[in-house]
């Protein structure tokens, strides 16, 4: 991939996306965790513990090549994106919970993402490719993930009207950026495209279905309400593929590692839409809510 795109344009585009995410967050979104801990804790355990474990098992089962295996693990460690909020809204989930989970995940990802990535690199590549997330690269992850979010929150605090006006444009920009980086990744790897699709297409589909299902049914097992479970499903199943691709290309310097996230970015939209439709459809004869909506 063009070095200017990988080292400059892609990080800048992601920074704008993460800044837009910050424009939708307030301190209240973090405080809400204390008032409604059950839904948040279950979703975070699924996101931070169960999902990487499931992904690791799938990678071994499918026998992915080393760099694609690292790419899948990097994707699994990436938090939910702003698109998760949109899906949750469309399918009547608890959007406030989505926002809370996104806020907490964005902070935790600064620690958990390098940990999972380094584990995957050490396990699958044997360190022979010179890949790792040492301290200087962890600082890059911090700069990419957290600093734009914090700046966005500060802008919202000082100018909430501006933040509200920018919500829709930033969401559109996020989708455009994701589409752009997927196209750029595919074009740069067009010689290997058939091989990559054959290797990652099915695992991306299976992982997406499992992520959404785990995100919905795990909270339900703990008596958490339907709307909160929908929010959890989309937060866990709709990953921030743009973040995973940016770290793969700009921080780790590997387009190969970015391929699974690019494939997932295409797969997750129709699968998430079908999942949301199915859950809403089946819901009609389900049990009553056991928790009040978070708000």
Outline the structure in words.
This protein has 295 residues and is mostly helical. The longest helix is centred in the middle third of the chain and has 31 residues. The chain is built from twelve helices and no strands. 50% of the residues are buried.
Which short descriptors sum up this protein?
globular, 295 residues
Summarize the structure.
The chain has 12 helices and no strands. It has 295 residues and is mainly alpha-helical.
Strand runs, count? 0
Rg, Cα atoms, Å: 18 Å
Which residue ranges are poorly predicted, with pLDDT under 50 across at least 5 consecutive positions?
287-295
Helix content: over 70%
Largest sheet, if any?
none
Helix and strand composition category = mainly alpha
The DSSP helix count reads 12
How are helices and strands ordered from N to C? HHHHHHHHHHHH
Beginning-to-end CA distance, first to last residue: 43 Å
Strand percent estimate: under 5%
- Average per-residue pLDDT, rounded, comes to 81
Overall form: globular
